[in-house]
């Protein structure tokens, strides 16, 4: 080196390299996925998705709304995480709170439209508490509708408050809802191909959880399945994996990253 | 290693920096009330559709679009313009202008105000066969303008939310980020959205509000690397004529 310190030259070339990189709009090399916060049915959940090489899709089937990550150039391996919306739809507090907040802006048509979406489900309740709460909500909303029709807005607003108080009583625990979704071969086509090989309790995102392992025999090979169930604030989240043993660790990392912000 | 290459590297620096920008000459645009200049990235073509430019390069596409009046300030401008047209005897043009004004429902805190506003506004639409002289309609304009002045002002994020809706954003997509910035000396909001379920299919939007009118730049299809690069290039090259709101 002559005339100029070696570290200055190195610094200069580093600067040039950085400038060249800054001009290049190409993708960066894949790295660990940072956590992302999803909101599929009214309850945010944060998780670190699988790394590059797992294609993302939206999923809205089987009562679950969420994301599905399909391993590219593989044998149909997939990881899914979603909110069991058939349960989330039973919760009425957010919708009723919105009605209370927007009440001053409602004309009759707005009110009736909002009301139609606010009535509680009464079919196949998950728990006796849900049946009681749904009856209370619907009775209060019926009175609110009658009051609004009579142009008695204060009365309608009061009954909305009654319905909201009832909705706030509703809570679901994992024990209340697990049977509705937990993996069993009988719920699959060709049950003889599926076999439960383990079930354990765990903690996911600080909440009690259940994890079930099973196998699935395809004509070509045996695949490993794993499903995790956790409830947070009355929302049931289901994480699923079906694929090769070597990728179970990818699923486990996704599940371990789950948080409820 | 020697330092003989040092002068070469120093000489290359300006060229490297210049390479980050576009080598194309700026093109003038006029989209509704928005006038200015923009660099069209090399390899991209422009389809001028009046109130919007569609910039294309293969499958990648950007749109630069006038979204019209937004918020009370823009509504007032449109009503004033309609009043001028009416005064000139161009009644149907004035009515057409008024019919195209977007007044968001959530500008009204209560149904009473909303119904009173639209009640006053309905004075503009009578029997088409009946010629309404300006003197007869002037009080209605004054009444509506007073009601417009009573509407709460909207900040840029609120205007951008309205712009997103007008561009098709709905519950299937979520806003990933909102980044306030200056573009061509004006306040702007750079918004990234993605699919609500999977966080795939990102889209980028830029909203610039000026004098009550909203201009948007957005990725029209898949926001791949080429589209995002062009989006940034177009965004950073936008410059506005000082009096671009004079013509509407």
**Which residues of chain B form runs of ≥5 with pLDDT under 50?**
1-22
CATH fold descriptor of the largest domain in chain A? Protein Transport Mog1p, Chain A
Q: What percentage of amino acids of chain A are in beta strands? A: 25-35%
Q: How far apart, in Å, are the first and last alpha carbons of chain B?
A: 64 Å
Q: Give me the count of strands of chain A.
A: 9
Q: From N to C, what is the helix and strand string of chain A?
A: HEEEEEHHHHHHEEEEH
Number of helices of chain B: 7
Order of helices and strands of chain B: HEEEEEHHHHHEEEEHE
Q: If you compute it from the alpha carbons, what radius of gyration of chain A comes out, rounded to the nearest whole angstrom? A: 26 Å
Secondary structure: helix percent of chain B:
25-40%
Relevant CATH superfamily of the largest domain in chain B: Mog1/PsbP, alpha/beta/alpha sandwich
pLDDT averaged residue by residue of chain A: 90
Question: What's the level 1 CATH class of the largest domain in chain B?
Answer: Alpha Beta
What attributes characterize this protein structure?
heterodimer, A: 261 residues, alpha+beta, Protein Transport Mog1p, Chain A, 2 domains, elongated, B: Protein Transport Mog1p, Chain A, 7 helices
Mind explaining what this structure looks like?
The complex is a heterodimer of chains A (261) and B (248). Chain A has 261 residues and is α+β, with helices and mostly antiparallel strands. Chain A folds into 2 domains: 36-87 and 173-256, Protein Transport Mog1p, Chain A (3-Layer(aba) Sandwich); 91-168, no CATH class. Chain A has 8 helices and 9 strands. Chain A has helices spanning 6-23, 85-88, 93-102, 108-118, 128-149, 153-168, 174-181, 248-256, and strands at residues 36-39, 44-47, 54-61, 64-71, 78-84, 194-204, 207-217, 222-232, 235-243. The longest helix of chain A is centred in the middle third of the chain and has 22 residues, at 128-149. By secondary structure, chain B is of the alpha+beta class. Chain B has 7 helices and 10 strands. In chain B, the strands form 2 sheets. A 7-stranded antiparallel beta sheet of chain B has the order 3-4-5-9-8-7-6, sandwiched between helices. Chain B has a 3-stranded antiparallel beta sheet with strand order 1-2-10. The longest helix of chain B has 17 residues, at 71-87. Chain B is globular, with a radius of gyration of 22 Å. The model of chain B is unreliable at 1-22 (pLDDT under 50). The chains are: A alpha+beta (261), B alpha+beta (248). The A-B interface holds A 1-4, 6, 9, 12-13, 16, 19-20, 22-23, 25-27, 36, 38-40, 49, 56-60, 65-68, 104-107, 110 and B 1-3, 6, 9-10, 12-13, 16-17, 19-20, 105-106, 108-111, 114-115, 174, 195-200, 225-226, 228-229, 232.
